[in-house]
Design a protein that fits this description.
5-stranded mixed sheet; Hydratase-Decarb/MhpD_sf; Fumarylacetoacetase_C_sf; 2-keto-4-pentenoate hydratase; 8-stranded mixed sheet; alpha+beta
């Protein structure tokens, strides 16, 4: 099957429609063009969407691909998506706004995010776990705000998610995780409470290989695309308690005993202009 998503014109058009819908904060009724048939085709759309969006990329999100879907996408275990300047927010105790596109996809995820203290440039040789571990400055509790103009983006699978900014609308960076380098992954326990009800519990062990395993994937995935990670970049490493649907007006608390809490208020995203 021809991967129409790899046609430069098709990639540019899909990206243009995603970018326009995100800028206007309006929902899309369907995937905006031919669905790419491969990971490479989907990343071609993502690269074009990054170019059209225009804001600096200050980090990346990593997410698992369901095992049943991996064979159809070259065996890829995970995917990545960009975090743009202006969508990376630090939580400083007070509730942080988490804007989502009304009528689109909207969820929050309790995650751990690494901050790099050294560059991991694109290179021919793959990175190893020691390479990426040495590049980490610190680990933080984080919330990924997963929102997209397309409500069914996750239902359509990895190609749609990759194409649509990785289904990422921002990352809320919380407190640093104490003692994370020596702690078992299971000890980094997390909880998500939405409107007073616990909707998920988990730990860093929910992500295969933990945060460093996700960082290793991101470094090599990006390097293969000719993209490096830079000092100061944030990499949010995957859902530790699941994907929790939200809508504007909801309040949430994401907590980790080794770090503290992130409080957030889900709001309706407002279009530019």
């Amino acid at each position: 099957m021809q991967d129409l998503g790899r046609s430069p014109a098709a990639s540019a058009e899909i990206a243009k429609r995603f970018v326009a819908a995100r800028r206007a904060a309006v929902a899309l009724d369907s995937f905006p063009g031919p669905l790419p048939a491969s990971v490479d085709g989907a990343y071609a759309v993502q690269d074009e969407a990054i170019r059209q969006w225009g804001a600096p990329v200050v980090g990346w999100k990593v997410a698992l691909i369901h095992p049943d879907l991996r064979p159809a996408y070259g065996g890829a275990e995970r995917l990545v998506g960009p975090v743009f300047a202006g969508t990376l927010v630090e939580a400083r105790g007070e509730a942080v706004a988490a804007p989502v596109i009304e009528g689109g996809f909207a969820a929050i995820e309790a995650e751990f995010a690494v901050r790099l203290g050294a560059d991991l440039p694109a290179r021919d040789a793959p990175y190893g776990l020691d390479d990426v571990t040495q590049a980490v400055d610190d680990l933080f509790l984080a919330v990924e705000v997963a929102s997209n103009p397309l409500a069914v983006i996750n239902d359509l699978g990895p190609a749609a998610i990759i194409s649509g900014f990785g289904n990422n609308a921002g990352v809320i960076l919380g407190p640093a995780v104490r003692g994370w380098r020596d702690a078992p992954l299971e000890a980094l326990a997390t909880r998500v409470v939405v409107d007073g009800a616990t909707v998920g519990e988990g730990s860093a062990a929910k992500v295969p290989g933990g945060p460093l395993g996700a960082l290793l994937f991101a470094a090599n995935c990006l390097s293969a695309r000719g993209v490096g990670l830079k000092t100061g970049d944030i990499v949010s490493t995957g859902a530790s308690t699941g994907i929790h649907p939200v809508r504007p007006g909801m309040e949430a608390i994401v907590s980790c005993g080794a770090a503290g809490d992130i409080r957030l208020s889900v709001t309706r995203a407002v279009g530019e202009g």
